[in-house]
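[Meeting: bench + compute handoff]

Bench side (C.D.) handed over the final construct sequence. Compute side (W.E.) agreed to return the predicted structure before the next meeting so the bench team could plan truncations. Sequence as handed over:
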Amino acid sequence: MPPILECVPNFSDGRNPEIMRQISDRIRSVGGVSLLHVDSGRDTNRTVVTFAGPPDLIVEAAYQAIAAATQLIDMRQHRGTHPRIGATDVCPLVPISDISLEETALHARRLAERVGRELGIPVYLYEAAQPDPARRDLRTIREGEYEGLADKLRRPEWRPDFGPATFNPRSGATVIGARRFLVACNVNLNTTSARRANAVAFDVREYGRPKREGHPLTGKVVTDSAGKPVMIPGSLKAVKAIGWYLPEYGVAQVSMNLTDLGTTPLHVAFEEVCRKAEARGLRVTGSELIGLVPLAAVLEAGRHFLRKQQRSVGVSEAELIKIAVKSLGLDAMGPFKPEDRIVEYRLRDASLAALRTLSLEGFVDETASESPAPGGGSVAAAVGALAVALGTMVANLSAHKPGWDERWAEFSEWAERGQRLKEALLPLVDEDSRAFAAVLTALSLPKTTPAEAGIREATLTQATVDSAMVPLKTMRLAVEAFDVLEAMAAEGNPASISDVGVGALCANAAVRGAWLNVRINLPGLSDKELATSVSAEAQNLAKMAQEKETRILQRVEEKLR
């Protein structure tokens, strides 16, 4: 997969749709860049735009967006609840795939230099792009906000990294940097008090609150030997937070930036806000995500809340998302549509999952058509997925069986394993068809000249290897599926024993069907050592599958008597 960057600029306008349309159009004008999400807030008077693509194109699109904001947004007229320092307040670049944070920082510095030079805007670097540790934190850079920027620029220690050290009254300044994926989450409280929301924010954010003498709100701030406030850290690491009131919705919120989901996951931050709010006599009524969220964060939240209910977490991706949305209250401010809000769903190419997303009838009809694909390999993978799905179903039913409550975790683990195998088998339905199509494409290549013949031979060799290896993967996974089925035959809900039997028959059909597809491609492998190795492994897998099926069916028969 080629390197992919995400860019999430925050613009200081959330009330003029025409301005955002023009900025979005400038981003779209850069071919190869995908505009993923535009999220405007009237009270904050701020819009978060998310787009992704190859690094060089992202840098160009980001420049075009910042240039458009410079022309369209006048900071002298800006009023809003969110801290800000300029028309394009902050513009982070985020590594998504096959690019390091260090490489991303180089792209951020290149963008910052161009913005400062060509647009005449003071630019500060932040986070991974900023070499000076004292200037890496966005909150520190933004202190004083737009209104204090003119004075700040006159101070030598706050000379911008790029661009002029002079106040630009129309555009302010811009902060550009590189960071890891950040999730912006606002938690709703049953109060209209921004002060109380801010108190909860101070309770949880890593930076915490200033230590005071005497009264915690009005007492004198305690300072250190350098005259800086002594801080009482909050309870959550890698979390930035403030509180505010949204007149549009009539609620106060704790607005959080989760800067390292590995340190503080989404569900942990949400639950901690719930605890701190309750301690102050408040109640959380829901939450909202600003921009996009990684799939893993939502799935882990779903698993967390299912575990709290002592329910099996071995359910489908869609079910985990549904549980997460309801538990976090992500639909409190409006519908939460996973296809629009989860970054992987926005980036995925629907054409790469053409078969697995068909209806059952559609897949059967496509298989029955005059096209040679999907063929036996795709069907074998699909049958393998059905086999492990049956085992997973029995595990989930067993986790909910009355009288077996103390065993829910045991069956949940088996269901999780089954879900992983199912999710690994389903893509092979399409991979098998693509591998076969690649063989046909290679066979159609010209071979008139020696160079053409060489290209054709190399392409055909690789396509043939893939055509053998994909069904071999199906065999490996389908054999693993027997582990789930065998455990359910021995320990699962007796009322579902016939389902286990059907699963075992399907798993063996998947293995033997994939084996036929391995065998038909073996003669085309020019690497005879590889062909021998693949053949030996496939034969061993087929033997194992037959033995496992026999053993499981014997147990099924015993329980059916």
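W.E. noted at the follow-up: The longest helix spans residues 450-491. C.D. will use this when planning the next construct.
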